[in-house]
Amino acid sequence: AKVLGGFAKAVGKEKVLGAFRLGTKEPEKERGRTFKDWLLQYTDNEMAHGIFDTIVSTLAAAHAYEISAAAVFSFFVAMKGFREVAIPPRGNRVNMENLAKVITSNGGDVWTNCPATRIVVGGGKATGVVVQKDGGEVEIASQVVISDIGPKATVELAGEDKFNEDYLRDTRTKLKPKPVTMVFVASDRPLWLEGEPAILMVVGARRITSVIPLSSISPQLAPPGQHLTFCFGSPVSNETRMDVEVEQGQILLDLKEQFPLFEEHGRVIKFDSRNIDDELPEMRARVGEGIGIETPISNLYNVGDACPAPGYTGSNAAAETAKRVAGIVGKRFKPGKA
Q: What is the pTM of this model?
């Protein structure tokens, strides 16, 4: 809301709110133009464009000149613009452990450090998986296989020859993964003095688009006696592989300029760069892109942010697909032996 307010001041409140209202009511009308081109209809104000490029890059996984206006409007309709920020106070691992407890308490089993090596396919349907366990391979028969490793990796495990060309083409052209460079900064003083439990969106920096003061949200995440700040950096293009060394260098310059206390009181404790061809990029699909949860192989489903419902992205998209697939499986299959 604060960012939208700044945009409204830059171009005129009524103009922006009116145009946005129309866009969110009929997002499909804007499918033929990028969000930047849509915005140029109303203003060429540099600050306005900078604000929205930061918003879109941070939340929708692409720059304003790379994503359709229709996709951006569908995001604001579906996700309400991310009004809240949730950070697990003890990290995401605790959430996974709690989920595992629910599974085991209901008679299921959870294996860790047991990577899947193959999805077993026979007669055009998935019949199980092969995993590594205790130094050997174990084949597990199942009525249904649900994959959360991304459509491309799923194809590799099942065998490319099991999929039709249309589906393979979609995995090459519709995913649009998002590269990112993340940096964790420890400091003996808060770098963002007004650091409330929220996301700071940075406009006009070289690479940094958003900053989260993690220790303001959960002090136990920081090194003892220190503050912890988490920054996202977006490359100029999300379409090609980024040069990791260049990106990290640009982010260091941003840190020095955006946070004057950094050089004297801060230190980088970790860089984490994810390229478009990494096993786990920041997102496997930007808003408005992606492929479906069903595959040409019967009983084989994809879940995750590569298969989002319209307007969804990131972990919200992943959760929505998991819920959707669980509903399908619950209706089509009955518990029992495969």
A: 0.88
